[in-house]
Amino acid sequence: MAGIPMNEDRTDTTDRSLSSARQARQERRRDRSREEILGAARAVLLRSGAAAMTLDAVAKEAGMSKTGLYYYFPSKDALVFELVFGALEGHAQAVDVAVEGADTGGQMLGAIIRETVHAFAPKLDDFRLAFLFGQVAGAGAIHWTDEQLARMRPLNEQLLARTTAKLAGEGGETRSRAAVEPRLLAFLAYLAAIGLLTMKGMVEHVEDPLVYSDEELVEGFARVFAAAASP
Fold first, then answer.
1. How many beta carbons lie within 10 A of that of residue 9, not counting itself?
2. Which of 24, 80, 118, 124 is the most exposed place for a label (fewest CB within 10 A)?
3. Angle between helices 55-62 and 3-48 (to 10 degrees)
């Protein structure tokens, strides 16, 4: 009699282990299917443009039914959001790591610019997806919910908070040469990088390259912002 509960315990433990393993496999399959759909959506978008990126086209590209696609993404807006969010989330993490390795506020401003340009200059299509999709798609083409916007906003903090805190700790507006509020100064550095990438995109398909190399432009911006942040 004493052995029966022990056997039952072993059986229960085995059943729980098998159930956990099945759950883990199912989650891996879901994650893989989700990534395949996002990859298919990106392929359709880059090949055919925003207007042609319908759920039917994405489902066909992914080799699945539209009903199957709806299981993962209930609308085109949801699918586009995840594409944009994924690009920006990875970028915010990379900028945060680059900034963490800098010693001064001025160096951090340069790190924001450098990491942003180096990440997207070789992949301007990803830059357009992350930063320009709404403009390219046209007014009313996409609608994001309050919940989606709430997911997006913390990425701005990840991009700028560490640099803002460092600049403020070094004296901020009262001591910096530019007399610009620390967070605004960090945001302006980010805008400088986005502007550089936008200009690269404008000349990408014409035989009129920029006079200065990416490195010259990045270093020029980095020096300007370091000087602006200095006492």
1. 10
2. 24
3. 120
Q: Are 193 and 95 a contacting pair, CB within 8 Å?
A: no
Give the three-class secondary structure for 179.
coil
This prediction's pTM: 0.78
Q: Which fold has domain 76-231?
A: Tetracycline Repressor; domain 2 (1.10.357)
What value does the mean pLDDT of the chain take? 83
C-alpha radius of gyration, the chain, whole number:
24
Which residue's structure tokens are 């609608």? 143
**For residue 149, what are the CA distances in angstroms to 120, 143, 178?**
23, 10, 32
**Phi-psi bin for 142: left (phi > 0), alpha (psi -120 to 50), beta?**
beta
> Cβ neighbours of residue 189 under 8 Å, at least 6 residues apart?
109, 110, 112, 113, 163, 221, 225
Q: How many angstroms separate the CA atoms of 10 and 102, rounded?
A: 54
pLDDT in tens, 107-144: 999 999 999 999 999 988 888 888 877 655 555 566 78
Instruction: Provide the angle, in degrees to the nearest 10, between the axes of the packed helices 105-120 and 76-100.
Output: 140
Q: What class has domain 1-74?
A: mainly alpha
Domain ranges across the chain: 1-74, 76-231
Q: Rounded to the nearest 5 degrees, what angle is found at the Cα of 185, between the Cα atoms of 184 and 186?
A: 90
